[in-house]
């Protein structure tokens, strides 16, 4: 179990700038065996309800078996309307008190979802929460350099125009984000720059919203038009997201990019299915999570249901550059 002191030392080293890239760059040290292993989950924060606690239990079991390095957390961390502030008990009741397994006491690299923006979005970025639970590492857009793989976390909520133009009864915390066009332009520029500088064997992008999805929310057109060309031009291998409360693997028909949805951390079973133009490899309209293991030459992923059963696995090998 990584104690508070260990996490603090890790973060001090990690926050040191590694290059001239605008995105914050965190260094995650590799294991001696050269393997990088993690779980990915999203759309979970419901104080243990809607089977969140059962999914968390299975994450702990699989996390121990795989000796995970960290958790990729793809947003919608606290329902329905984010946190009210840094003293909101929902942080402990939906996170600290739920993900208690020893194997999950690793860094949780976290981005915001649209529900998080409906509350005090800045609270989730505050170092106060990290003092409450040292696993919590949350920023809007950032990079995790993890030896064999670089992870490019992208703040996708501001891309979606309907949140700005038709918020209905919701209020979004756009502090630090408005004006919209200027913010998006900078995010895209910074992501492109960071991707071009990456020399990792695997490039993995992470966002809350799906680029491709066959479930209720479906494809995010703003990301298809603005973010996807940058990912494809820079040879990104995987895009991991949440938002749709399901598990999915979709293969791009015009690039090597694989779309992976792991947004099934609690409430699911929406009963929606709308195919898109890319190839659907796997779809599960229910609760669960994903594991990912990487070496320099190979990636292996699995999706698990609420009982910890493996629903689907996929592997891919590519030549190791010399």
TrEMBL record:
Its cofactor is Fe cation. CDD domains: MPP_ACP5. Keywords: Glycoprotein, Hydrolase, Iron, Metal-binding, Secreted, Signal, Zinc. Fe cation 2 binds at residues 76, 114, 208, 243. It catalyses: a phosphate monoester + H2O = an alcohol + phosphate. Residues 1-21 form the signal peptide. Residues 38-246 form the Calcineurin-like phosphoesterase domain. The keyword Glycoprotein applies. One of its GO terms (molecular function) is acid phosphatase activity. Its EC number is 3.1.3.2. Gene3D superfamilies: 3.60.21.10. The keyword Glycoprotein applies. It is found in: Secreted. Belongs to the metallophosphoesterase superfamily. Purple acid phosphatase family. This is acid phosphatase. The lineage of its organism: Eukaryota, Viridiplantae, Streptophyta, Embryophyta, Tracheophyta.
């Amino acid at each position: 179990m990584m104690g508070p002191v260990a996490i603090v030392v890790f973060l001090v080293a990690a926050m040191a700038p590694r290059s001239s890239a605008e995105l914050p760059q965190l260094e995650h040290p590799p294991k001696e065996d050269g393997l990088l292993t993690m779980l990915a989950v999203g759309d979970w924060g419901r104080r243990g309800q809607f089977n969140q606690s059962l999914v968390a239990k299975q994450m702990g079991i699989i996390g121990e078996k795989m000796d995970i390095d960290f958790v990729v957390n793809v947003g919608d961390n606290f329902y329905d309307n984010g946190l009210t502030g840094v003293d909101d008990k929902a942080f402990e009741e939906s996170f600290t008190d739920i993900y208690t397994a020893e194997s999950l006491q690793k860094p949780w690299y976290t981005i915001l979802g649209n529900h998080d923006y409906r509350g005090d979005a800045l609270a989730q970025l505050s170092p106060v929460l990290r003092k409450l639970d040292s696993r919590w590492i949350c920023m809007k857009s950032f990079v995790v350099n993890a030896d064999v793989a670089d992870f490019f976390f992208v703040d996708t909520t501001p891309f979606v125009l309907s949140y700005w133009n038709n918020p209905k009864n919701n209020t979004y915390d756009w502090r630090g984000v408005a004006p919209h066009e200027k913010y998006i332009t900078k995010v895209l520029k910074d992501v492109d720059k960071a991707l071009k500088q990456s020399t990792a064997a695997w490039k993995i992008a992470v966002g809350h919203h799906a680029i491709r999805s066959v479930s209720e929310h479906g494809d995010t057109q703003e990301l298809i038009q603005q973010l996807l060309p940058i990912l494809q031009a820079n040879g990104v291998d995987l895009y991991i997201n949440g938002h749709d409360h399901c598990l999915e693997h979709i293969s791009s028909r015009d690039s090597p990019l694989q779309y992976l949805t792991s947004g099934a951390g609690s409430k699911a079973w929406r009963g929606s299915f709308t195919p898109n133009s890319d190839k659907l490899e796997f779809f599960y309209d229910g609760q669960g999570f994903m594991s990912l293991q990487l070496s320099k030459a190979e990636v292996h992923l699995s999706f698990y249901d609420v009982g910890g059963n493996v629903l689907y696995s996929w592997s891919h090998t590519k030549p190791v550059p010399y």
